[in-house]
Amino acid sequence: MPPNDENKQQKPALLSRVLKVLIRATVLLALLFILDKLLPSISQQTQSFMVAKWQQLSLMQQEPPTENSLPNPLPEQRLTDTWGAARSQGRSHEGIDIFAPRGTPIQATTQGIVSKVGENNLGGRVVVVVGPGGAGHYYAHLEDYADIAPNDWVNAGDIIGYVGDSGNAKGTPPHVHYGIYINGSAVNPYPLLQKD
């Protein structure tokens, strides 16, 4: 083979290899760039999850609420014991209703971890906070939520939402339904709340 033909074949082969290396390098750089952008948020989510689990474990080792130990979620409003009152479909009321003007800020009654910010059929817009002893503090019929999300830590007195009439309370005077669940069972929150 003449030397000239050999040079012509080597140039395309060399060019092809260089092009393949450049393509691989570009793909690798693109993957590294994507990982660099994703890892901090994945790491942050993992860290947030781990902190929430640690806080939850710590809360489980504390005592659940006792008589007169919790502040009123609507401090300026009068409390009435509506526990056990008849409800539709043969149900009984598993909480108390605290009436206030629409949009009144609702305060967390305990420190704890937000486990739900969302909707359900009966409660409408609801927030659930898991507090000491694993007690679930359930706030329902909200008009809107505060700037909170699941796994957030709240302290007693932090705003978690606003009084409304969502869910099956539509058309009733605005109020918050406040319930407490200990070991999965509803308990009357009225005796646990401080009365002014």
UniProtKB/TrEMBL annotation:
Residues 92-189 form the M23ase beta-sheet core domain. It comes from the Bacteria. Keywords: Membrane, Transmembrane, Transmembrane helix. The keyword Ion transport does not apply. Coiled coil: none annotated. GO terms for molecular function: metalloendopeptidase activity. The keyword Nucleotidyltransferase does not apply. The chain crosses the membrane at residues 21-39. This is Peptidase, M23/M37 family. The lineage of its organism: Bacteria, Pseudomonadati, Pseudomonadota, Gammaproteobacteria, Moraxellales.
